[in-house]
Write a structure and sequence with these properties.
60s Ribosomal Protein L30, Chain: A; five-stranded mixed sheet; 5 helices; 26% helix
Amino acid sequence: MNQMGTESAEVTLRVGLGRDVHRLAEGGDLILGGVSVAAGIHCVAHSDGDCLLHALADALLGAASLPNVGVLFPNDLEENRGRNSLEMLAGVVDLLGKKNLEAVNVDAVIQLERPKISGFFTAMKDCVAKVLGLSAADVSIKATTAEGLGPIGEGRAVEVFCICLLRKRRRICPSHEQ
């Protein structure tokens, strides 16, 4: 029943929005979308600090009305120290499967003053698509700068916004399965 007291149709599409931001520091590797995009700079984080995958995970979780990535993978647990964000994203995909949901497409915007990362978009899209079970054509990743404004523009932080569309999984009639 909905708020008006009438029967609700089953929702088959769901939209989610995710955002993540991390400080940048010298040393290590900057990982975005499961890809090392720069050496000598990294996101300050408890896990591997993949800002893109964290925003994506939160978008997926939000669309499914599940707790955010910080609740599922708390930064005060030692087992999450340095954790590969691809593993976290795979865990989120498993949770979606338990709710009979799957991603249709994702769209992300990375705000980063430097380094320039457009040469890594294809690898990032391929990595994300593989974990989500999508075609790379269903994954959009782009970047912009903050034009020198604030901590992002000063090169002290990276921020990512991500939106996703989920749908109920299509059921295959057992007599048609191979």
